[in-house]
Structure to design on (339 residues):
């Protein structure tokens, strides 16, 4: 009995290396298994068991398992498809408002009255170049929007398959969409961008934000199976 | 899926077991090849519970020590079935190729 008490103390010292959440959940049963597996008259934890416990304790401390639910993944996939659709809408809006935007940019560049009183200082320098700048932006948007549509469709496929790179891709797409919104806002501030463009890009951005939040909180641990069935 | 995980799920496929029972069962299933250590077992059980593949069946106190029994969930059962089917398919390919190879060597 004395030997078992000594062995128990030894194991408890090793178990103290585990994170507290793990100890609350498993310390007593883990200790029971360790003591049950012990040799008759054993006083000290075995070297192999001690190394095993320390190794797993260290691993749990360095990389605690993420308690994620997989329920968000189907919704994230739906949101990605929505984002792709909104990108398509934004593309249509940019194309249909192209003439109005170019005309507004031209007016803004030539008319001194159009200068907004509290406008960004940088815009005063940019203003004369607005027509060219806006034209380039529109051309860029015409190219970028269809690429973004394809990108979101690919990400939706990746998320549905539980691919890990889909998460990184989603974050990258969100950052790019956010940059697009910032550019649109700055251009809109120069009173050259149509309101429809801003609304369309904002909608894409909001949808991308929701998708990113959802995919980051949901699990994609499954590496080669459907995301709804995690494979450890 | 790593081998210890597969073995733990296989051990639980026949019914609920406690930690020490799983260790002995896994040793028996693998013909003594896989010796699970307690640290490995509980890391795996902790992860499998978090993933919803196993769950606590019941608890007992034996000799004033906690004994917790685990069982497979429906998700765990599906996951094990998929993995076993995948392993069987892979093993089938290996055997077929080995047969073809020995057939070639024989001629």
């Amino acid at each position: 009995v004395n030997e078992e008490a000594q062995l128990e103390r030894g194991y408890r010292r090793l178990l103290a290396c585990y994170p507290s959440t793990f100890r609350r959940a498993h310390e007593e049963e883990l200790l029971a298994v360790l003591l049950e597996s012990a040799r008759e008259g054993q006083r000290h934890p075995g070297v192999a068991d001690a190394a095993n416990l320390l190794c797993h304790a260290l691993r749990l401390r360095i990389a605690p398992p993420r308690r994620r639910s997989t329920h968000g993944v189907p919704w994230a996939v739906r949101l990605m498809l929505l984002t792709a659709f909104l990108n398509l809408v934004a593309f249509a809006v940019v194309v249909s408002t192209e003439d109005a935007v170019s005309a507004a940019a031209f007016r803004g560049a030539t008319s001194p009255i159009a200068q907004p009183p509290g406008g960004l200082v940088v815009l005063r320098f940019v203003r004369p170049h607005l027509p060219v700048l806006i034209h380039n932006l529109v051309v860029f948007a015409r190219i970028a929007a269809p690429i973004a549509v394809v990108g979101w469709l690919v990400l939706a496929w990746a998320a549905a398959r539980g691919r890990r790179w889909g998460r990184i891709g989603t974050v990258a797409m969100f950052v790019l969409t956010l940059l697009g919104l910032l550019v649109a806002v700055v251009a809109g501030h120069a009173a050259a961008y149509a309101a429809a463009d801003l609304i369309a890009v904002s909608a894409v951005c909001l949808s991308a934000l929701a998708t990113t939040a959802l995919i980051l909180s949901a699990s994609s641990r499954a590496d080669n199976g459907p995301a709804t069935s995690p494979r450890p | 899926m790593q081998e210890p995980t597969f073995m733990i799920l296989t051990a639980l496929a026949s019914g609920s077991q406690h930690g020490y029972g799983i260790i002995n069962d896994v040793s028996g299933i693998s013909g003594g090849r896989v010796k699970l250590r307690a640290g490995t077992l509980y890391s795996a059980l902790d992860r499998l519970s978090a993933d919803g593949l196993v769950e606590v069946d019941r608890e007992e106190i034996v000799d004033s020590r906690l004994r917790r029994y685990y069982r497979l969930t429906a998700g765990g059962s599906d996951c094990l079935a998929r993995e076993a089917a995948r392993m069987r398919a892979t093993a089938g390919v290996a055997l077929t190729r080995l047969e073809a190879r020995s057939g070639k060597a024989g001629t």
